[in-house]
Amino acid sequence: MRPDWQDKVEDLGFNYHTLNNEVYWDESTCYEFSYPQIEILENATNELHSMCLKAAEHVIKNNLYERFFTKKEFIPLIKSSWEQSSPSIYGRFDLSWNGNLQTPPRMLEYNADTPTSLFEASVVQWNWLQECFPKQDQFNSLHEKMVAHWKEIKPHLKKQILFFSCLDEFPEDLVNVYYMLECASEAGIKTQFISVTDIGWNGENFTDLEENKLCNMFKLYPWEWLIHEEFGQHLIHSDTIWIEPAWKMLLSNKAILPILWQLYPGHPYLLECYYDEPGKMKSYIKKPLLSREGANVTLVEDNVLLHQTGGDYGSEGFIFQQLCKLPDFEGNFPVIGSWLIGGESAGMGIRESRSPITDNFSRFVPHLIGK
Length: 371
Prior knowledge:
Order of helices and strands: HEEEHHEEHHEHEEEEHEHHEEEEEEEEE
Number of domains: 2
Largest sheet: 5 strands, antiparallel
Strand content: 15-25%
Distance between the termini: 21 Å
Radius of gyration: 20 Å
Helix content: 25-40%
Structural class: alpha+beta
């Protein structure tokens, strides 16, 4: 661990390395992978993404929106964004895997709309690697692929400013959004930040505080929150281009998990999953459709309650997913966040918890690829 690690990461703009007096960025240890292990993660991530796109298409073609807790008036917005192939920049699968080459990674969920920890996965752990293990490699092409993909997206944007937005009161969201803004700027796109609270509606268009029309918007703000905002009803009629697009509402919702299981039963990357009840499963995890940071989650093994978290989610319904215990390294439980940029595997970040459920206090631990 670098003796001046706080100064080092703050110089990068990483100002939330410690949360509530608990270390969030933890470089006291690291995870080492081999190239064959990385290849497995890449292949799994790419295949899972392809499966998820087919699942989204299945929902749209068969009008299976009822399970997604989506307002009916926003269904046309989801459909049109899908049919128009509205541009998407990124996503992150949360995977459970012990690194055994004979045992496939298993998908826990897909953070397809507002994935965070991008900055630490792309920049902070790369800087750590260059300083501490300069001769080693890392599964991390995030920055290069983001800039390249923004260049691909640029012709599909309106020839106006691309605004980047989040709630600026949260340091993690703000740093991640500004990092994405910098990547888009590096790709030659004219950019500007606006807080979600400063987005207005003038009767015809979404506007900033100076009444400028918001033609292009990247948001780190969940669609399920956006549609419930005071201006949410205007999303249906606005011609603003939103990134991530509205069809990501389907993939970021855990209601997609039972559909994946229906379409690909027994697939080695998936976990058995159902709506409403666990079926014949005796060991399972019960998750709300829209919960975040491990809230309102229940772990059951052999019909015995193992662990339960509180929170404010659940009114939207639950899914029941086969229990897949995270690897246990001396009381530390890691989840692999496997990133996609432009629909392609691009790197990973690891969140480590002292409980079997990953929450908002779970630590980010860097990784490297061994010789």
